[in-house]
Amino acid sequence: MSAHIANNPHLQTLIDDGLESVGGPYLSLTIQRPKLAGNIQKWDILAKNAVQRTREYLEGLLGEESETPKAMADRVEAIVGAFDPLQDQCGGWLIVAGPDTTDVFELQDSPQSRIVWADQPYLLPVITDGIQRTRGWVLAIGQQTADLYRYDGVEMHDESHRLDFRTYDEMRETREPEGNVNLHTSSALRPNMNAGTGGSFASFHAAGEAVDDYNEKQLKDYFNGVAKAVEPLIAGSGNPLIIAGDPKNAGWFKDEIELHELHDEHIELGGEALTAERLMEAAAPIFQAIASENHELDDMGEGAPLTAAGLSDVAEAAKAGKIETLYLASELDGFAASNDDERVKFQELEENALPRRINQVVMRTVQMGGEVKVPPLQHKLTESEALARLRY
User: Fold this and answer.
1) Is there a domain that residue 107 lies in?
2) Fewer CB atoms inside 10 Å of the end CB: C or N, the chain?
3) Residue 162, in any domain of the structure
4) Residue 213, C-beta contacts closer than 8 angstroms, at least 6 positions apart
5) In 3-state terms, what secondary structure has residue 88?
């Protein structure tokens, strides 16, 4: 089973039903999340316009006398009204509404604004989400907390909200009192070991495990917790992970994490220097060097063995279940930079429109257990809309 649908059985059902043209017709709608900068009125206008455009689109297809345009628009209004764009850290949403069911997918990147009414759901964005524009990851690991960034070849995107772990300070607050450790000082205690203006440092005498050893163990437990939060987000993606931090922390963390994507080279930064700007400055040339190395596309192309080139040949191979890996040109993956416009204009996709043909090939590929990839810009497809490595 393809990794795209292994953890989402209902997505697999949508793909199976869609390819067999059962369960429809479907209204598929992609909505971008604009950069609001706290201006929720902008979202209110966008949401209202999205509902109105949906109603007008369906009335144009089905007629004003049909009950479907109003019913579907009402469903879209209820769904969009439940979104919280000030809290949701995402690029946008895909809504797939059938006669009896509605699915909503939160998308990592900004989808192109599209609307489709067809017997087949438009699932291209949810299948390719996270594949495109992700060139690698940077984890800034500090002694107190950790931040995760996704690099798309142009800028860093803060994905720290996707991590679930206890910070070092949270672990300190919940650890059991150290009954076997005695503390004394010859004068006033400092607030902590690195601050304060008077008195002497506290002295410890441990009857059992030394305090420094205990703190070191707790620090490694914290690193282990961060590693367990990071691994499922990156494992199997093939996108390299670069660790940033002071050499000691980076070294300890590398001992805790188990990822094939972990890159040997790390970025030596610490404290206040662990900003998105400094991290991108340091990481960009590393990702550039990785992308310039031998790529899996190097031995593929027109006439190469076990290769299908061009949309027609790729479509035939997908239908026969021959595709091991499908490579798409980046402009065909269903995503684009946010236009940040509350007036929202949906692209209406006709039956033979290229995105819908790509959608069907992608659905068939993952249904048959194949993978879908969007090559880095250095290996951009220039002579073919689609390229596939075949199983046989």
Assistant:
1) no
2) C
3) yes
4) none
5) coil
Cβ atoms of residues 308 and 317 within 8 Å? yes
Q: Whose CA is closest to 90, among 296, 335, 346, 383? A: 335
- Its domain, for residue 282, covers 136-172+212-292
Q: For residue 16, tell me if it sits in a domain.
A: no
pLDDT band at 167 (very low <50, low <70, confident <90, very high): confident
Most confident of 166-170, 191-195, 208-212, 357-361: 357-361
Beta strand 136-141 with 241-245 is parallel
What residues form DSSP beta bridges with 229? Answer: none
The rounded distance, in Å, linking the Cα atoms of 192 and 199 is: 11
The pLDDT of residue 201: 43
- CATH number of 222's domain: 3.30.420.60
Decide if 45 contacts 138 (C-beta within 8 A). no
Under a CB-based contact definition with an 8 Å cutoff, are residues 2 and 369 in contact? yes
- How far apart CA 308 and CA 386 sit, in angstroms, is 8
What's the rounded mean pLDDT across residues 69-77? 95
pTM over 0.85: no
The amino acid occupying position 156 is M
Residue 369 CA to residue 361 CA, distance in Å, equals 13
Cα-to-chain-centroid distance, residue 202: 46
28 assigned to some structural domain: no
Nearest-angstrom CA–CA distance, 344 and 75: 18
**In this model, does residue 363 exceed pLDDT 80?**
yes
| Whether pLDDT at 104 is above 50 | yes
Residue 128 has pLDDT above 80, yes or no: yes
Q: Mean pLDDT, the chain, as a whole number?
A: 81
Q: What is the DSSP letter of 186?
A: S
Taking CA atoms, 340 is separated from 36, 91, 150, in Å, by 8, 11, 21
